[in-house]
Structure prediction request, 387 residues.
Amino acid sequence: MPVAVVKYDQTLAALRRAIELCEGFSGLNPDSKVILKPNVVIGGRKSQRPDGVVTTLEVMEGLLTLLREAGCRDITIAEGGAIQPELNLNTPRAFEWSGIKELAERLGIPTIDLNEGPFTALDFYGVKIEIASALLEAGFIVNVPVLKTHQLTKISMGLKNLKGVLSNESKKNFHRHGLERFIAILGTKIPVSLTVIDGTFAIQKGPVGDDVHRMNLLVAGKDILDVDIVGAHILGIDPAEVGHVKLFADMTGQTVDLNRVEVRGENPADVQKPLAWASTWPLDLMKKYNISGIHMETPGYSNCSGCGMGIFVAVNNFFRENVGATFDGVEICAGQEPVASPAANKVFCLGKCACDTNKDHPHAIKIKGCPPSIKKIYETLKEELVP
Ligand code: SF4
Prediction:
């Protein structure tokens, strides 16, 4: 099936062209239960704009309009956003911040918080994974991610956006048991009918942040792999280097070669804007606040979204209050991967994963929890490091 790349001026006409070029509604039965799965990963502050972080209202309203024009009456918007109770991160707040709540109410479209279940348990190589049953029972799934590079998985587009359909515990299990492999397996379980990447904006080093680039693009197609291949090229990332994309291609007997994809509309090379994906946020924070004597690696694959955001807030607050401070042999570990140096004087282990990895370090200071408490992280850093 073709992939459409269309310049997007926020009009319904441009979205319609993208759907027509990729034959996106072929096979659509108007009597089907249709699910729209946007990317509404978090709810931010009222003063922040959601540009680049969540799917735009223009794309969501346009898709709802086109689906209704096609005769669909049973349409639901479904998402399971990041959960972090201390930051009040949850799906209802994300729906509100993104404007989707107001849009859905205005158009009479139901919304579902996928974190609430019910779930169907499937076996992923011996690990029980819970998938929201609504997705498995849908007749036509429209996957509507945002064009993002991602600080763990290099890109977050069609396949990665499906992670929102898991229970919170299963999201953690994805991080514990091989994030890229499990995303690829998930792609084989969810019968996505159409993927529309909202490239109104692209975010660099996502999944959240303010490094946002105006792109005014749509990438749409019925084949989720082909859409991700094209989307990756547009952001200057080789899909062969993206773990979950390559694994999904292998699992489904396909390749990640752009040349085999029939692209209609714009040539990806002509609209390309290479963006970076790797983040060094701990180092960046230390430079910003002129902190020395602390080593903190960027958390790796194992760091869940809610946990990572909470850790960022706690560490940022501590550094901000101690501008210019010098410490001696301190290490901060978050996630499963970082192993503290044996020579470290104090090792702050943020959360269950870091505690488990560094449990035998003689100077480990364990801040347990899954996720760990932001308040506890901040207070422990203060008690241990500020005389
Ligand atoms: S400690 Fe944090 S990173 Fe580890 S599983 Fe729990 S929430 Fe995820």
